[in-house]
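Hi everyone,

Forwarding the result from last night's run.
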Amino acid sequence: MQFEAGKIFVDVLDVTQQPLDAMAGLAYVTGQGLAVRNGAENLFVGTVRNHNLGKKVLGISYDVFIPLAKQSFLEICQEAQAKWGEELDFYVVHAQGKLDIGGVSIVIAVGSPHRDEAFKASRYVIEEIKHRSPVWKLEHYEDGDSEWSKGCELCSSNHKHEAHVI
């Protein structure tokens, strides 16, 4: 019996049609029965929080240039495989459309033979997506105003991008 290693699945879904499913990501990198070959699965789920930069947030609208986003997700996962092992499995799905507080905006699942690589690869993927992928978010505030996010929030908080790369 042969098991496929190094699988990558990337997509962008219209959340007005269906919500993102974190368990689908976990299932993709875990496998079933005798196909379970990874000893570690890391699941990152990004959700909409109720505040940002001192303002009360009601929701976020995500706009995505889908073909380029999917290509960037794939390239980022391939880079992570090159850094932490070709056998790593990845599942990356980002939301497009409007989400309320608590809505799932991104699911990243990484399967790996060992936990260290799964953690490092997962962190790398989310940080690189935030910096490189064509995803824009329009925050909707309690006061009725809306504003486009000005990029990676960590960058605006005096964090250096290089500090996120493991």
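The longest strand covers residues 89-100.

Cheers,
N.
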